[in-house]
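User: I'm preparing a small set of examples for a lab meeting where we compare how different chains pack in three dimensions. I only have the primary sequence for this one, and I'd like the structure in token form so I can line it up with the others. Please keep the answer compact; I'll paste it straight into my notes.
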Amino acid sequence: MGDATAWDEEKYRLSILQERAADARTVFSTAFAPNSNGKTFPDVLLAASSDGTVAPYSITACISAYASGLSAGQRHESLTTIPEAEPLCYLQGHQGPAYDLKFFGEEDDSLLLSCGDDGRIQVWQWQEILNSFGSGVKWGRSPLQPVLELKNPQQKGPWGALSPMPEANALAIDKQGNRIFSAAGDGNAYSWDMDAGKITMTFKGHSDYLHCIVARPSQNQVLTGSEDGTARIWDCRNGHCIAILDPFRATKITKHSNKMSPWVSCMALDPTQNWLACGSGGGCLTLWSLPGFNAIIRIAACAPPQDVIIANNQIVAVGAQPLLSRFSFGGKVLSQVNCAPSSAYSLEVHNSGVTAVGGYGGLIDLISDFSSHLCVFRC
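Assistant: Understood. Below is the structure token output for the 379-residue chain.
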């Protein structure tokens, strides 16, 4: 029956809470680090998680650990058998979930940007992070500090009272203009000058908070997707909205309707910046031709898309199901691959063809361009 004389009730409760927190941890964003020395295969993958951390992982080490487990007979079919990966270091960047990651600049001289529920955008020197690898940095003890912290503005209410700081949900990069864009919980998008570290323009018009944002530098535009069911295209020269799109109904609209469509969950531009893919909470993807603001095709999905990328003339999407789907511009399903997270929030495609899918359970699935699983690990 066992000896209960040394039973520690508090320790048992804490272990249960820690186990549940680990199972519920969610990877909201992933980013492949810039390659150095002309390498084509990615070296490092970064993950932003629901516990507020930003952590880099060695892809080679994760693949090796996964392969070792398979050779030992582990099938990795459940959360308990998927190996946990030790990060190269930890960055405790946010008080609350970290939602997005982006790199600004080139190779080792680039900046790493993260944003989160606390309404802050943290800016890190990537070279400093590289130098910290292997230094034995432990959880909660990272000596690395952001080189810049940007805060979303708080609105003034009656008698000068400030509203809570709206969350920063997504980031977009414009290297040509030396600026970044952020999508905020107050329904506004903000343009930040990276030299001054200040907001230079505010894009107002959505009636609800923003989920996603993408930059279109070739036309000096930025695009936003909102909980209000619309996507908007903004002119960065004057802050005016030049078009309103309804991705669920696949139509351009002249003004906001009281009959709301399901939220716009994700957006992506192709390399030419002429094609836009939008994911809707109604369970569909819509492809738009931006020169004429025309909806070309509406693709039904099995579940609401939560991230989308256009790569190699394909629409690649993940969502509220354990599936990575690839579609042609004509809407034909090219492939569907089962992935580890039961609900996937993050999708990143490397130039080498390697795809990272992150999501619920703190899981990341690395998939080759041949649709085989290179490794699965838990953050």
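A couple of notes for your slides: The helical segments are 9-24, 59-71, 126-132. The first helix runs from residue 9 to 24.

User: Perfect, thanks.
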